[in-house]
Amino acid sequence: MSSKQDFVNHIKEGYETKGDFIALGAGMLDGETLAEAQIKIPLKTLNRHGLIAGATGTGKTKTLQVLAENLSNKGVPVLLMDLKGDLSGIAQPSPGHKKIDERHERIGIPFEASKFPVEILTLSNQAGTKLRATVSEFGPVLLARILNVTETQAGILSIIFKYCDDNELPLLDLADLKKVLQYATGDGKKEIQEEYGSISKTSTGSIIRKIIEIEQQGGDLFFGERSFEIEDLMRQNDEGKGYINIIRLTDIQDKPKLFSTFMLSLLAEIYSTMPEQGDSDKPELVLFLDEAHLIFNQASRALLDQIENIVKLIRSKGVGIYFVTQSPTDVPDGILGQLGLKVQHALRAFTAKDRKAIKLTAENYPISDYYDTASVLTSLGIGEALVSALDEKGRPSPLAQTMLRAPMSRMDVLTKSELKQLTDNSELSDKYNEDVDRESALELLNEKIKKAQADEAKEVAKKEREKLDKKTSSRSTSTRRSSSSNSTTKAIVKVLTSATFIRGALGVLNKMLR
Q1: pTM higher than 0.85 for the full model?
Q2: What is the pLDDT of residues 432-447, one digit of tens each?
Q3: Which domain holds residue 447?
Q4: Are 143 and 101 in contact (CB under 8 A)?
Q5: Is 59 within 8 Å of 86 (Cβ atoms)?
């Protein structure tokens, strides 16, 4: 038996599946594409997470597009992070091309152009359904990790949240949180200290500075109402296709704090909302995080630990997470070890550092009798990749150099008019794009402070009146006493004068009688 047939049998055995699957492409050996060696990814293993990696221009985004389309066709909703702005074309069918036909003839998979149900979401003021979350929904623990505060400052945040819960002060946006922190060491210092303990003004000042850092990256647009409900990511259209939700992030590429804040919030909300389901025939939701290194850049150790914990636990909720980045080394080892499907596009060896990275990358894949992995990594063409997956029993499948299928939808962006039509027809925009500014902690505390100031002013005025009244009363009494004293003096003078006169008169009279 030839080595070619051995390879085909090897792939068939390793990628055999009895359940539903996604056909990713066909295996390659010595540069030849073998249509019999189909690379089938079991649908039930796609909640085991994955990695799509490779140098710029090698086809990572198209691989992401292929996986998203096929998941949608299977009724699985998808969430895509679109940092480069080149994924919106999924809403329109591919115009086709002779090179696409040639590719599909080689891999033995029929090509059918198709469009998919798409919802455009946004964190900023771009067109699309706005994604928001309230500060209260984050909670003190998650917020402390995002802000990267000290243990003492994290304790202060817990006190602030407790105080707001006890006093029915809704923490909706960052302005609310800053106001309560200022209140805790200002007008409300005595009130909070008596009930919850003392809070350092230095610590609250430090927390506020970290909040301002988030605001400067656009966090003030993300925190607020109306909060996005995870259930709205889980929709299907009338044909049973899962919605592909595309979050447009083209204007926050240089704002890693905001991006990581949003991602952690989203993952935590999905984890807390969705029920445990164990193993099932297909995922409930699959997330693709393009330019994944932005999540980990400038992230604190605590934040990385939180992401790693969620990645480990969230698959039991039927959720798969796929990291799309240039090199596997962009992803922390603790997370990389959790990834079941790996699609590795070409890497370039321009420097000694590149060669070391390629050697390290090759060691992350199963040993193959058919490939020198490190050598193949530098020779892959566009739309080709090394693939390693999990079979239905969770075992690693053989490493396969693969000619990948082409996307069924447009491999380009929507025009402005197409994008406007898509967003105008959105079922979710009316629900989430209305500005909601209900009374929250900021307004309630301002009212409380005004009332306290008014009460204090009244008390001061009352004391001043009492003091004035007392002074006036004192003067009146003094006047009366003075008047009485004068009358008495006059009476005494009168008596004394009369007595003197009488004594004088009697003295003269006595002399005359003598």
Answers
A1: no
A2: 887 766 666 677 777 7
A3: 441-514
A4: no
A5: no
